[in-house]
Amino acid sequence: MDKILNCVGGDFVDSDQTIVTHNPSDLSEVVGEYAEADETLAAQAIDAARSALDEWAWSGPQQRFDILDGAGARLLAQRAELGALLAREEGKTLPEAIGEVARAAMVFKFFAGEALRPGGELLPSVRPGMTVEVTREPVGVVGLITPWNFPVAIPAWKIAAALACGNTIVLKPSEVAPGCSFALARVLREAGLPAGVLNVVLGQGAVVGQALAASAQVDAISFTGSVATGHAIRAQCAGNGTRLQLEMGGKNPLVVLDDADLGAAVENAINGSFFQTGQRCTASSRLIVERGIHDAFLAAMRERMAQLRVGHALDPATQIGPVVNQRQLASHQRYLQAAREDGAEVWGGEVLTRPTRGHFMEPALVLKAAASSAINREEVFGPVASVLKADDYGHALALANDTEFGLSAGICTASLKQAQHFRRHSRSGLVMVNTPTAGLDYHVPFGGRKHSSHGPREQGSYAREFYSVVKTAYINP
């Protein structure tokens, strides 16, 4: 197996240290070996991005369109190959992984179009004879710090937006599942991206991420990850005045009212809570069920959970793949044990044995846990959901909003009135009506409120609010 090297200024740079990834479905399989970067290499990558900035910032919209659209086409053509890599390194089932690569391809194609739609205004001045021109320009050098749970989609929607707006990039992918980020870099080189415009350096967050956040030569940071790390990055960026975008997770409610279609509500809960092993920041981690439907909902959930197949990510029969690594698996088990010790009842959640040695865990449903308990307050980030009983709609809404997070919220109901009220009064960035809390189109804005997000939205045309700056020019002919 060839070691995959860091990409800096068009060169491939080795190091003495190596990061090795294993297949969470089969721990005997080494998926990748990667050169581990340090602060010095991170600084070199920043310098390379700075050197490439002027030429790329002044590149024409047709050049950007061709490169981004070409990258999207290549990703679509390679989605089976890259999907298999993603499934082996992160643990998503193969259909989920291929779907993620296809989504990344469409993200690139969307932002290819955005390169042709930079926006702007021509306004008359209140001063006679003068005009005002409002245009957008690149922010500059952008540092992108991405997580392991969507190792191709999240880097794609950050990279594509940044490039469409004319920025140069230093990308630090997660060391847990970095293979797809290096594949994205390769695809973009094949599509004609000039050297130094995208630099990829892989290392520990406390080393490479810290170097990006602390550098006065980085004009903006876009980070997706934990709340604690996001807050630390915000403090680091404040001193330099670095533009900042943070996506930091959720504790997302799915409200089920008495008038909901029971079968549809259960499927929404199963999908939102457990698919992709629950390793989604938009996962339904709190199921808030109105009293009248509560018992029937639990009975149907238990029956449906018993049918779920947990196994190797590449097995066609598998519906839920493994947890990404031992640290995450141990964390999930600690949360469930703490819930039991607090008097809650836990269905499922057992660590499973399969023909290959991996991090397999049965989906878990937690009942009778206090709304103030850790299982209902903290992001578990795995195939775990808790159930809270609500007296009525008003109580359900209050429980839904009773969280420091505000990313996604859902409601299952036949009432248009209640759905509209929930849409308006849910304190979250995303609201889903009769559909899972997880899942978003590639052309619409993504982000939350409270501790879930900070700064402008990601994705869609709203991404330009972060990746470009507005210039106002007065013209006196």
**In the residues, how many domains can be counted?**
2
Please give the share of residues in helix: 25-40%
Strand residue content: 15-25%
- What CATH architecture of the largest domain would you give? 3-Layer(aba) Sandwich
Low-confidence region ranges: none
Largest sheet: 7 strands, mixed
Q: Specify the CATH class of the largest domain.
A: Alpha Beta
As for the CATH topology of the largest domain, it is Aldehyde Dehydrogenase, Chain A, domain 1
Task: Name the structural class.
Answer: alpha/beta
Question: What's the CATH H-level superfamily name of the largest domain?
Answer: Aldehyde Dehydrogenase, Chain A, domain 1
Main β-sheet, spatial strand arrangement = 14-15-16-13-12-18-19
Helix count, per DSSP? Answer: 15
Number of DSSP-assigned strands: 22
Quick one: overall form?
A: globular
* Overall mean confidence score, pLDDT: 97
Radius of gyration: 23 Å
Distance between the termini: 64 Å
Topology:
Blueprint: E1 6-8, E2 11-13, E3 18-23, E4 26-35, H1 39-57, H2 61-77, H3 79-90, H4 94-115, E5 121-124, E6 131-138, E7 141-145, H5 153-164, E8 168-172, H6 179-190, E9 198-200, H7 205-214, E10 220-224, H8 227-240, E11 243-247, E12 252-256, H9 262-274, E13 284-290, H10 291-306, H11 326-341, E14 345-348, E15 364-367, H12 374-377, E16 384-390, H13 393-401, E17 405-406, E18 408-412, H14 416-425, E19 430-433, E20 449-450, E21 453-454, H15 464-467, E22 468-475
Helix pairs in contact: 1-7, 2-4, 2-6, 3-4, 4-5, 9-10
